[in-house]
Specification:
- The complex is a heterodimer of chains A (427) and B (158).
- Helices cover 45% and strands 18% of the residues of chain A.
- Chain A is α+β, with helices and mostly antiparallel strands and 427 residues long.
- In chain A, β3 (160-161) and β4 form a beta hairpin.
- In chain A, α4 packs across α5.
- Chain A is globular, with a radius of gyration of 21 Å.
- The termini of chain A are far apart.
- Chain B is an alpha/beta fold.
- Chain B is built from 5 helices and 5 strands; from the N terminus they run βααβββααβα.
- In chain B, α1 packs across α5.
- The N and C termini of chain B lie close together (10 Å).
- Classes of the chains: A alpha+beta (427), B alpha/beta (158).
- At the A-B interface, α4, α5, α6 and β13 of A face β2, β3, β4 and α4 of B.
Chain lengths: 427, 158
């Protein structure tokens, strides 16, 4: 027996469905049903020891495991009143650089650019422009190599713990990566140039942008939660400004602001709110591009990712050069009952965690608000705006057009292989 | 020296999708001598996506162990080579998901890898979060480990 009747080797996470309800040819309802795993994890974490949390939550996503580890670690450190040593903080930023690099390179070249260039997939792009795709894979691989050097594995790295890191990575192994990073910085600058040539559909949306802001660095870990509407909250106050609600059609929670607004997290929000904190090369690339901020076109989040790719290559080079481990990599934890919140910027947007722990360090309550839950109502609203175009198209074309828009948000429909199934219903 | 990579793929928390990781673990335990050979590298990978291609560096043969979703009885073992893989397609071009077939196809397209690929697939019964392995899949693991061991030795002799 040599063949299998089935089309896919297993890497299935769930299905997304787009439902459009029409009345007299006009959209009255748009629902994006997506599968989302964090809810399961919230229950799963109960009665687990706090030190297990970073590695368990990392399993939520194969693309951004570091984000889950980091938000979890900060939340639990806040619950215990622990502050990590400065070199551990710098190493966390460096590790995050690796994740941004691999995630952004993947999204720019393998997921969104083929859409914009009218290619069915990166496979088709590879057939016509193999050098571009080869460079993209190298750009991505360098990010994974960094994760492997710090975290032992390129997918689902370990080593981050509550209190810092389990051990310091070898300084020489990190410094050996520098030539690759110098190459990557130039390739990232070329990516910005490429991003400027892509044909983006016209679409401007008046978003409320929300991102972590830090006065001294590009907001990724720590800082305040800023909104383009002027709301500034500490991370501990996040839930005073942003509320999650169950909606009937989805097993993902949907978020909105206390004013009942939809809002957007992710690269556009970060670039618009934090461009002053970009590294010099990234800042110059942005200035040279002639692009005016705020950027309001969701498709142009590719450009924001390209600028961030430059930033994170540049920051990684700096952090590797400055890396000087000394003393213990983590502070000893004194267990006590408590509650703490943590938020960091995952490549696809703000990721918030909150935990309650008992005196033995066992988790009693967990709340995880992933970026996609925050963006979902906004994505639905954008799809609603797109409906008049969609209903005049053949089904396959309509599905693809809707997918392009959804994909530009880089949602963590966590590696969902089967993506949109479009259903239009006339009432 | 012929180099062989043994790669267990899967998701530890998603029912039978964890079988590739579990096979790797049990194989390492049962066949320690092979697992510790310099020319044999083994790695467990959760959702590797395109990173899989990086694991083929300087490797002559890569043997991948993964769960498959098909119509055969749960626990059925499939042994596939590259040519048979070319028939595999999935909808993975969509979100982040780069399926195994697409990843290998991309590697071939770009000629970034000349690695020979063999896939040991185990038919899954369910891939539900938090359920653990099904009995039929568990029962298949010892046989899969023996097949894997045999495939590794075949590859080392090539």
């Amino acid at each position: 027996m040599k063949t299998i009747e089935v089309p896919a080797l297993a890497r299935v996470e769930g299905e997304g469905g787009l439902y459009i309800g029409l009345e007299n040819g006009k959209a009255i309802e748009v629902r994006l049903d997506i599968y989302e795993p964090p809810r399961f994890f919230e229950g799963f974490l109960k009665d687990r020891f706090l030190q297990e949390v970073p590695d368990i939550t990392a399993r939520i996503c194969g693309i951004c495991p570091v984000a889950y580890q980091m938000s979890a670690a900060y939340a639990l450190e806040n619950a215990l009143g622990v502050k990590i040593v400065p070199q551990a903080r710098a190493l966390r930023r460096l590790m995050y650089c690796g994740e941004f690099i691999e995630s952004h390179a993947l999204h720019i070249y393998m997921l969104q650019a083929p859409d914009l260039l009218g290619k069915e997939s990166a496979l088709e792009l590879a057939a016509t422009a193999p050098e571009v795709v080869k460079n993209a894979l190298r750009l991505k691989k360098i990010g994974n190599e960094l994760l492997k050097t710090i975290g032992g594995r390129s997918v689902h790295p370990v080593n981050v713990c509550v209190g810092g890191f389990y051990s310091w990575p070898d300084a020489k192994s990190l410094k050996d990566l520098l030539p690759d990073f110098e190459w990557g910085l130039n390739a990232a600058l070329d990516t910005v140039k490429l991003a400027l040539t892509l044909p983006y559909p016209d679409l401007e949306i008046d978003y409320e942008f929300v991102a972590l802001h830090h006065p001294d660095e590009y907001g990724v870990i720590e800082g305040e939660v800023w909104s383009s509407n002027g709301r500034k909250l500490s991370i501990a106050e996040y839930e005073n400004g942003y509320i999650e609600e169950h909606v009937k059609h989805s097993n993902a929670l949907h978020s909105h602001t206390v004013d009942h607004n939809t809002y957007l997290v992710g690269p556009l929000a970060r670039l618009n709110l934090n461009h002053k904190q970009l590294m010099p090369n990234a800042k110059k690339a942005l200035a040279d591009s002639g692009i005016q901020l705020p950027l309001k076109n969701p498709y142009k989040s590719l450009f924001a990712r390209a600028i961030e790719l430059v930033h994170f290559y540049e920051e990684a080079i700096q952090l590797i050069k400055e890396y000087k481990p000394s003393g213990p990599a983590h502070v000893e934890l004194k267990l006590k009952a408590g509650e703490g919140a943590g938020a960091t910027e995952a490549p696809r947007g703000l990721l918030y965690h909150r935990y309650k722990i008992d005196a033995n360090g066992m988790v009693q309550f967990a709340k995880i608000t992933p970026p996609t839950a925050q963006n979902l109502p906004r994505i639905e609203a954008d799809l609603f705006a797109l409906v008049p175009q969609l209903i005049s198209m053949p089904e396959a074309e309509a599905t693809l057009t809707a997918e392009h828009l959804v994909r530009s948000y880089d949602p963590c429909i966590s590696c969902a292989t089967h993506f949109l199934k479009l259903k239009v219903e006339e009432k | 020296m012929t180099k062989v990579a043994v790669i267990g793929i899967g998701q530890s928390l998603r029912g039978d999708d964890a079988v590739g990781l579990e096979v790797l673990r049990q194989w390492r335990e049962r066949f320690q001598e092979t697992a510790s050979r310099l020319e044999v590298q083994s790695e467990a990978c959760e959702l590797p996506g395109l990173t899989l291609l990086d694991l083929f560096n300087d490797v002559d043969t890569a043997i991948l162990v993964d769960a498959v979703q098909g119509k055969s009885t749960p626990g059925t073992i499939h042994l596939l080579d590259e040519n048979e893989l070319s028939a595999f397609t999935s909808d993975a071009k969509s979100a982040h998901g780069w399926g195994l077939a697409e990843t290998l196809q991309l590697g071939n397209e770009l000629m970034v890898t000349k690695t020979k690929v063999r896939v040991v697939g185990i038919q899954a019964e369910q891939m539900t979060l938090g359920t653990g392995l099904s009995e039929a899949v568990k029962d298949a693991i010892p046989i899969v480990c023996e097949m894997l061991e045999e495939e590794i030795h075949k590859a080392l002799c090539e």
